[in-house]
Amino acid sequence: MLSTYKAVLNNNSLEWFDPIPPRLSSSKVTVFVTILDELSVKKPKLSGQKSIEILQKIAENGGPGIDDPVAWQREIRQDNPLLGRE
Q1: Residue 68 DSSP label
Q2: What value does the CA radius of gyration of the chain take, rounded to a whole number of Å?
Q3: Which of 5, 23, 29, 56 has the maximal Cβ count within 10 Å?
Q4: Is the Cα dihedral 35, 31, 1, 4 positive or negative?
Q5: Where are the domains of the chain?
Q6: Rounded to two decimals, what is the model's pTM?
Q7: What is the pLDDT, as a whole number, of residue 33?
Q8: What does the alpha-carbon distance between residue 81 and residue 32 come to, in Å, rounded to a whole number?
Q9: Chain-centre distance for alpha carbon 60
Q10: Who's near 86: CB < 8 A, 6+ residues apart?
Q11: Residue 66: helix, strand or coil by DSSP?
Q12: How much of the chain exceeds pLDDT 90, in percent?
């Protein structure tokens, strides 16, 4: 079965948009590269590692400060009370 993974070819290496597929992380494989229109390929704004670092800093600082997640979600989403769940 053929698989497609989104990446950007930068000089001689691929920069993956998503985490590297497990079966590709430690082996050599033959690939075919299709060059797409330059405007349609955008570099990801944050790498997965950078996102993890940002979330760890938020956690180290005590998190987002939400004491009651259910009340917070109801306020944000402006949910109506559900019959039989209040």
Answers
A1: -
A2: 21
A3: 5
A4: negative
A5: 7-77
A6: 0.33
A7: 74
A8: 53
A9: 21
A10: none
A11: coil
A12: 0
